[in-house]
Amino acid sequence: MIVVENLSKHFGGIKAVDNVSLSIAPGSITGLIGPNGAGKTTLFNVIAGLHAPTSGRVLLDGQDITGLPPHELFARGMLRTFQIAHEFSTLTVRENLMLVPGGQSGERLMDAWLRPARVRAEEAALRRKADEVIEFLQINQVADELAGNLSGGQKKLLELGRTMMVDAKIVFLDEVGAGVNRTLLRTIGDAIQRLNSERGYTFCMIEHDMEFISRLCDPVIVMAEGAVLATGTAAEVRANEEVIEAYLGCVMSFLVGEEMVCGYGGADILHGCTIGVEPGEIAVVVGPNGAGKSTAMKAMFGMLGLREGRVLLEGEDISRLKPQERVLRGMGFVPQTNNVFTSMTVEENLEMGAFIRRDDIATTMRQVFDLFPILHEKRAQPAGELSGGQRQQVAVGRALMTQPKILMLDEPTAGVSPIVMDELFDRIIEVAQTGIAILMVEQNAKQALNIADRGYVLVQGRNAYTDTGAALMADPEVRRAFLGG
Amino acid sequence: MSDVLNALVILANFVIVPGLAYGSQLALGALGVTLVYAVLRFSNFAHGETMAIGTMFVILATWGLQSAGIGFGPLPTALLALPVGIFAAIILCLVTDRLVYRYYRRQKASGVIYLIVSVGVMFVYNGLIRFVIGPRDQVFADGQRFIIKAREFKNMTGLNEGLAIKTTQVVTVVTAIITVAAVFWFLNRTRTGKSMRAFSDNEDLALLSGINPDRVVMIAWIMTAALATIAGTLYGLDKSFKPFVYLQLLLPIFAAAIVGGVGNPIGAIAGGFVIAFSELFVTFAYKRVVTYLVPESMAPDTLVQFLSTDYKFAVSFVILVIVLLVKPTGIFSGKSL
Questions:
Q1: Is the predicted ipTM greater than 0.90, yes or no?
Q2: What is the pLDDT, as a whole number, of residue B337?
Q3: A164 to each of A47, A169, A178, how far by Cα in Å?
Q4: Which domain holds residue A398?
């Protein structure tokens, strides 16, 4: 049905998709898996016409559809859903569904005035169809609810419903299970299976949940580093040595939080998110509010227990260590708020930062003062009396006093002026150049990605995009969704 | 002119000198309360009884020294016994923390629960004191009673009024100054002291800096026990040891801590003197002072006393209420209660 031939997509020097050939058989549910940064979403975007490929072509039923814009692919029965549900939040579920098919008569001003009967008839037909879809997906109870009020999982169901309104032939699902609870995931899985068996839909889906994949998908295609690594049944690829290595081999050597699942109280905030950083590198975690950015930092520093997953420092599992023990292992953390001892002087703050050290701290303190000259000037002043930007400098300085191998910063530029922010970023680059690994969460996504060697976009507790900072900046989808165009 | 001097001597004799001594005692007590509040974050109602039980240990040690024939010359033998008493009180506080408070710390109990728990500890200590030393008064001050006797002062200056300064008063003030200086030196100059301030300022950040919370808590109890024992012993030397008086001292001590700003050591000391002098000024009978200062015809025939001494605790209460209404964080802006 879909045949991809020698497809490549490069962003600058990054080969996100590199010479990929694969085919999707009609009537199949094809799973696309792979470690973060394997190029799955990019491949989807190229097939779905969001990106033009660097080379290669895509065939739909033998016809070349390479580079066709999304709306033309849509007309040919090819649809994609997004990792983050896109819905019209101020319309009801039913209205959302009825809007989907293009070319409705009521959309033309003349027809709306001159042929009301025809418009009404069309609308009635659409309504019947929408009702049928609602029935099929068993979302009757929320049919007249505003789409914005739906839960994450219900929004995913609505996405599926939208594909049914136009009788798609092939649907690309990008992490339909992301941020969805187990029960709803089963419902979504059932709907996909029924659409496949009863309506003859072909599906191709990116998914991280192996259980979900094993239940639904045959075949499963494994991608790693932009290329296809293996194809086969779920059981086959699971047993494949190369696949195992690809998943484990991409483990970063220095600090990495793998497939972290954790949260506060009963609800999980992180649903299997992976973040890592190398020495001398700046890794930046960005994403919308509530994506779990700060939670990920806390989990990696041991301030929050992991339910699943693990944290590795230089290959050693440190998941069970207390924060103080991680400090001793060379990790430093700058919290987002309350990150200085307000009643103590700048100098005392730095001294406290070096509390665990038994050797002479004078040299390190001099280095911190060299990095932040203003602190030397104000060293005898209580940190609580300093300005916001100066406080952040104290906070970073305090964390540097332990001579950490890795420095973690939770929104270091929160509440400081743009000039101070630039200044802070400059300092952070300087710190990274001394060989310290820097992992930071940032609200100012654009500026932060600009200085990032590695960028993580988190959405609803999962990795949405992972790439170099520059590649993320260049990715139109990331730009549109998170960077404001 | 001599009238004015006479009036001043009366004031000094009955208000200023006793006020300095009493204020020092309250300051040391309040310092202990404020320390527990700053580090362990609760109001320790057992602090009065900690003072009493520490003093009890000192008295027992004093008796031991006295029976062995060891004295401290003109100074009270209790000063020699002080380290023993402090050591015993530290052990008691650490055992209490291990058996009682640690459990609630692990539970992350709220301040109110701690407070109730400390009331329980107070009763246990109280029972322990009655069990060991009994409820009766104990006078354990020995050595020379006065440094300056009233008559000597009169002979020396030729004034009508005498100024008596008790040894215990001088000992109190000197010991208090040394103790406070030591506490401040510890908090501001040593690594451990700074780590306590850091822990009190921002517990989470302290943990991130690798400061060991168990150690900070332990040192806080050691200091509290030492301060309580010193304060209690000085008070017992100055007045006499009555197990129940320490329970009543709790009010002025808390008033002192809160007036100064709870959690703030400087505030605790200032608060101690504010409370002490307020009590004395309000309950002092000014008749003789006024008599010296006004012409004979206008001499008052009442006591010229604002409140009877029976109401001295009411003074702390009123000050406490006013401070909480007007400036709940205290004069030196401690933590808001």
A1: no
A2: 38
A3: 20, 9, 21
A4: 251-482
